[in-house]
Every structure is written in C-alpha cells, then in structure tokens.
Amino acid sequence: MNSEVRIQNSESNGFSRFAQDGFQIIHSLVTDDECTRLAAELTPLFERQIKSAKNRIGGVRNLLRTNPLVSTFAKSPAITGLLNQVAGSAVFPVRAIFFDKNPDANWLVPWHQDLAIAVAKHIETPGFTGWSIKHGTIHVHPPVEILAAMLTLRIHLDDCDASNGALKVIASSHRSGKIRTGEISRQTTAREPFICEVPKGGALLMRPLLLHASSPAESPHHRRVLHLEYAAQKLPNGLEWFDH
Ligand SMILES: O=C(O)CCC(=O)C(=O)O
C-alpha cells in the first residue's frame, strides 16, 4: 500500500470540493458544552455494551429511537440546515451510532463502503438485495441511487489524529457506485488514502459510498464519534426507514 499522506480538504472553501471528493472535514461544528453533554450521555452506554458483549465490539446503535438527546440533536435546524444546503434538498436522519475507540475497544475496520440501510420490515422489492438481521434490526442493500443521495455526518467528541484510529478514506471513490471486492483492493492499493484528522467539536461529512477504513489506535485514548446518517428520499413499495 502507498504511504498515507495528508492532503488539505477543509470547509475553508465552502463545500465546493464535496461533490468531487465525497468527504469534507468541518473543523468546528459543535460547541464544547454540546460535546460534553453528548459524551456524558453516550459513554456509559458504550461501556455497558462492551461489558455485556465480551469482546464483540460495535457501536451503540438505534440511538435515534432510544435516545432523545441524540434524536433532538440530529434533527436540530443547525445540523439539518447545513446538510440540506450540501444535499441541495431536504434530508432527514435515519440512523445514529456511537463509537468509542479506547484501550478496551481498539478495533480495525477493513476498507468498505456503507451499503446497508436499516428498515422497519422485510418487503421484497426490486433492486433491494442482501437482506440480513444485524443487532436485531433488518438491513438491506438498496439501489445505488438511494445510497448516493445519503450523507453521513461523524461528529467527533475528542480530538482525533492519525495515531488515534482516525478514519481513512479514498477521495472520489463514491463516484464508482457500488464497488466489487477485487476493485476495492485495487483502488486502495493504487490510491493514497486521506487520513481524516478531526478536532473535538469538528465533524467528517462523507458519502456512505466513499471507501473508508480505520486502524487500531497506536496510543489509545478515547476517540468518541457520534455517527449520523441522513437520507434524502422515502423508500418505495411500502418499505420504511427503521429510524424515521
Ligand atoms: O468508526 C470507525 O472506526 C469505523 C466506522 C465505520 O467504518 C462505519 O461506520 O462504517
């Protein structure tokens, strides 16, 4: 793999690069107070999950449904207003997950795209494939148009740098649509990843189709992220987003 380099991609030029690159770092989005409130609410949930899951590390899921603070935050005009502007249409939150990479939960995630959405019911529908149940919730791979219109906003509640398990991405890879496995390894060896260093209170805005991965932290301390996914359209054929 090529060595990882840091290139500039910040909101200093507005969101003009977002369509091309499929991601953008927003250096300051959430106040210190909001970070503290979210961290105080969500960290104990993650710790409880780790204790009960015994080594099975995953985020705390379904937070739009179970946590009023997250739900209110995800729907706040400050956040949706920004995302509507980037999307060019009204978006709404459909999934919220809390991740805390730390000494007890120091995972790696291989290169992938986020292809699955959570839905309320299994209704066979043309273009919807790969039905599964994850963490008790029905998931399916929707047609590429639905994924391409979605936005993911990852809000950082701690400073995150390259040594701290930052997400790495392949710029513009979202423009290839759904990428086959062999093509994923071709793109990730041929291209230099961008390491998404994000300060506390900042956020990474990205398309779910963007190739991304993360390494374990080298000097692990908390790397808390509230991961919010937004959709731009209703689902067809009576299907419904699980968390809308
Ligand atoms: O937060 C991470 O380290 C990885 C999360 C991720 O890859 C995902 O949500 O798809």
Structure notes:
It is a single chain. This protein has 244 residues and is of the alpha+beta class. It has a single domain, classed as q2cbj1_9rhob like domain (Jelly Rolls, Sandwich), CATH 2.60.120. The chain is 26% helix and 24% strand. It contains 7 helices and 12 strands. It has helices at 18-21, 32-53, 63-66, 68-74, 77-87, 144-148, 181-190, and strands at 23-26, 92-101, 109-112, 117-119, 129-134, 137-141, 151-156, 167-169, 194-195, 203-206, 212-214, 223-231. A 5-stranded antiparallel β-sheet has the order 1-10-7-12-2. It has a 4-stranded antiparallel β-sheet with strand order 3-11-8-9, with helices on one face. The protein has a 3-stranded antiparallel β-sheet with strand order 4-6-5, with no helix packed on it. Strand 5 (129-134) and strand 6 (137-141) form a beta hairpin. It starts with 17 loop residues before the first helix and ends in a 13-residue tail after the last strand. The model is unreliable at 1-8 (pLDDT under 50). Bound molecules: 2-oxoglutaric acid. Residues 99, 109, 114, 167, 212, 214, 225, 227 line the site of 2-oxoglutaric acid. 2-oxoglutaric acid binds at residues 99, 109, 114, 167, 212, 214, 225, 227.
Q: Average pLDDT across residues?
A: 90
Q: What general outline do the C-alpha atoms trace?
A: globular
CATH architecture: Sandwich
Q: What structural category arises from helix and sheet content?
A: alpha+beta
* Span of the ends, CA to CA: 40 Å
As for the number of domains, it is: 1
- CA radius of gyration is 17 Å
